[in-house]
Amino acid sequence: MTDLSQIVKAYDVRGVVPDQWDETLAELFGAAFVQVTGADAIVTGHDMRPSSPGLARAFARGAAARGADVTEIGLCSTDQLYYASGALNLPGAMFTASHNPAQYNGIKMCRAGAAPVGQDTGLAEIRTLVEDWSDNGAPEPVAATGAVTQRDVLDDYAAHLRELVDLTGIRPLKVVVDAGNGMGGHTVPTVFEGLPLELDALYFELDGSFPNHEANPLDPKNITDLQARVRETGADLGLAFDGDADRCFVVDGNGDPVSPSAITALVAARELAKHPGGTIIHNCITSWSVPEVVKENGGKAVRTRVGHSFIKQEMARTGAIFGGEHSAHYYFRDFWNADTGMLAALHVLAALGGQQGPLSQLVAQYDRYAASGEINSTVDDQAGRLAAIRTAYENREGVTLDELDGLTVTAADWWFNVRPSNTEPLIRLNVEARDAATVARVRDEALSVIRG
């Protein structure tokens, strides 16, 4: 019996090609996607990995065999695929493994208007169909198979983003962009074209073998080249995109990383200026500064679990105008509630270019606390370790606990969150406090319990 549990994750399909999945399975996924969504037309796109074009074309064959017309937009970033799904009002499938190593590939699927497809919203049913068809044979093609056509939406995507942020009056800026040989090298030149930016392009060559560094800017070692180039050239800022260019990381003119929480707060303030009184979504491990800034700017902050499906669900439920995560995913109501690091980058450029000071000075008002960053501990018993944390802190005076996502422990001048990984035997710890010494003390005490 076929078992796809190793590659069908909570939000997407992801695994090693061809060991765990291949074009034969991709074709079945295309057929199942059409059957579950009931779509008569879909849109597909893919990143620069060597296996991506073949997988995307196989998916299109499977979809067309079930009667759906397929619009292929070809090479694109994930948020460009979301743009196409929103603008064309079609379900979509993006072939990418984001920041994973070269041998991986995957599918991020959405319904029309970029609405997410996850385990609870169709992905489980898609998996069941693909497993069944793998064992018992694919269904016969329908009488009227769909047509497969190609369409380039890069210019339209860039124009849409630039309609959402006013960059007309900004001062000239020098910006270093590290695309990590990923899809930022495809989208940045078009999005930035004509803006008063001196662009210093690092690793813009599309290369799914990632010859320079992993396309995962969340790991500090992967932004060292960007930091060095910003410092060497006296650039105003640096931007780093992950492999499918849906996440954007920022470094200031000193080459120092700007926390995604600070970017979330900065963009939230700008979005609230456009949409007074709006709701902003943030996950439970973003900084205290985010809800503070939202409140100061007349908005309503709503806290939710980590993960894009939870953010998007809350965006839709509350009518929120913006949402941000610690992992540098940024979600916009004006972008079908989907995440786009490129739009967040344009907000940073507009904010920086709209005043004379350096980025470090600009973001200082949004970066108010000391933080540990995410610390992973390998454990044998995730539930047991979480229970041990609860026991250690639940009776302390002045301390509150909540279990929105893992366990969050909050005191007057610090908080920490511990969450089990869904895919590995890890517990993730994040600590924030009013000063670095308190972060160190709370971190060490929590780790002593986590690690026994």
Automatic annotation (TrEMBL):
Residues 6-132, 155-255, 263-369 form the Alpha-D-phosphohexomutase alpha/beta/alpha domain. The lineage of its organism: Bacteria, Bacillati, Actinomycetota, Actinomycetes, Kitasatosporales. GO terms for molecular function: intramolecular phosphotransferase activity; metal ion binding. Belongs to the phosphohexose mutase family. CDD domains: PMM_PGM. This is Phosphomannomutase. Gene3D superfamilies: Alpha-D-Glucose-1,6-Bisphosphate, subunit A, domain 3 (3.40.120.10), Alpha-D-phosphohexomutase, C-terminal domain (3.30.310.50). Residues 374-446 form the Alpha-D-phosphohexomutase C-terminal domain. InterPro entries: A-D-PHexomutase_a/b/a-I, A-D-PHexomutase_a/b/a-I/II/III, A-D-PHexomutase_a/b/a-II, A-D-PHexomutase_a/b/a-III, A-D-PHexomutase_C, A-D-PHexomutase_C_sf, Alpha-D-phosphohexomutase_SF. Its cofactor is Mg(2+). Keywords: Isomerase, Magnesium, Metal-binding, Phosphoprotein. One of its GO terms (biological process) is carbohydrate metabolic process. It comes from Streptomyces chattanoogensis. The keyword Mitochondrion does not apply.
